[in-house]
Amino acid sequence: MARIYQRNDSWYLDYFKDGERTRRSLGKISEAEAQAQLTALERRLDAPPPAAGPDFLTWAEEYSHWHAGEYPDSYYRVEQIIRCHLIPAFGDLAIGMINPRAVEAYKHARLETATPGTVVKEIRTLQAMINHAVTWDVIPRNPIKRVKAPKDLRSKPPRWYTKDELRKIYKASEYGPAWQLMANTGLRRTEAMQLEWKDIDRQGIKILSDAEARTKSGKWRLIPLSDGARRALKAFKGKGRVMPQVAPYSFSRAFSRDVARSGLDGSLHCLRHTYCSHLVMAGVPLRTVQILAGHASFTTTEKYAHLAPDHLKGAVVSL
Predict the structure, then answer these.
(1) Phi then psi for 8, rounded to 5 degrees?
(2) In DSSP terms, which residues pair with 14 in a beta bridge?
(3) How far is Cα of residue 168 from the mean position of the Cα atoms in its chain?
(4) Is residue 30 helix, strand or coil?
(5) Containing domain of residue 73, as a range?
């Protein structure tokens, strides 16, 4: 429903769209001009909706296949978000018909059981999926582009292990050499499991990015071998890949089990935090840490700045 009306010397449009009422000034124009704008508006309101595209479940399968090839290092986490949370919530909806209200309802429902950081990842994954549909001309626009992820106001230092804690973890199971190698190199899980003997020489470990094994940043890097890394490598035998070949989830669960046996906490990724933390505490410049760890953004590396020797010492004054 739409109409025009005049107040003082100005004409106004008054109409409903998607259940919301809007009043818009047309300015000091003639009645005929106002009527023409009303007619144009009525045509837009009566126009059929844009192509809705495939249902979310169908698009999720196509997007997941593309994402697995483009970002293999983060694929497992994204696939889990899509399969466990997004498909149950939006699976039967056409992607072009997922509206902000539905996403806001999902966001608030998830915040009752999940941390803000987790929900942020889920909303960003959903946004990325719809944006990709627009990029591929599957739908003409992103209907949820204005939806914002919740703010994660938590901030705490990354969990890392001391040398004594690491020794306990190494002794906890047969995977000790694997944990030792990862703590001494900062390898991501996928990088560690795809590491091959041919990529190791006197210079160190070459983490390559190619069609078979892409790095998260898409760039290769060289990691010098510490004495701890060399000791860990001596425990491995065979050709081809260095690490025992098990399912990624099983690899992570094995570490969680060993940590619990050691009376500690943390996930497999904490070994990467440990590598970066000990570099910073040894006085290695943050820019060098960024290169060794393969951080695409310096913001990620800055999380370890508080561990640097004399960090903020020069910023204090005696009063």
Answers:
(1) 55, -120
(2) 3, 23
(3) 31
(4) coil
(5) 56-135
In a domain, 318, yes or no: no
Q: In degrees to the nearest 10, what's the CA dihedral of 288, 290, 296, 302?
A: -130
Residues 74 and 27 in one domain: no
d(CA 234, CA 184): 14
Pairing of strands 221-223, 204-207: antiparallel
Report whether 180 contacts 233 (CB < 8 A): no
Q: Tell me which amino acid residue 210 is.
A: D
Cβ atoms of 308 and 281 closer than 8 Å: yes
Phi, psi of 127 (to 5 degrees): -60, -45
Residue 95 and residue 14 in one domain: no
For residue 317, what is the DSSP state? -
Mean of per-residue pLDDT scores for the chain:
87
Extract the tokens encoding 79: 């696939």
**pLDDT per position as a tens digit, 182-201:** 999 999 998 999 899 999 99
**3-class DSSP assignment, residue 55:** strand
Contact between 256 and 268 (Cβ < 8 Å): yes
Predicted TM-score (pTM) of this structure: 0.63
Go through 150-184 and write b for each residue having 16 or more CB atoms within 10 A of its CB, e for each that does not.
beeeeeeebebbeeebbebbbebeebbbbbbbbbb
**Does residue 151 fall inside a structural domain?**
no
The separation between CA 260 and the C-alpha centre of its own chain, rounded to angstroms, equals: 27
* DSSP character at residue 316: -
> What pLDDT does 215 receive?
53
Q: Which segments of the chain does DSSP mark as H helices, in order?
A: 31-46, 56-70, 75-81, 87-90, 100-110, 116-135, 163-170, 176-185, 189-194, 227-234, 248-261, 270-281, 286-293, 298-301
Rounded to 5°, angle at Cα 221 from 117 and 68: 50
Gyration radius of the chain's alpha carbons:
27
Is 150 within a domain?
A: no
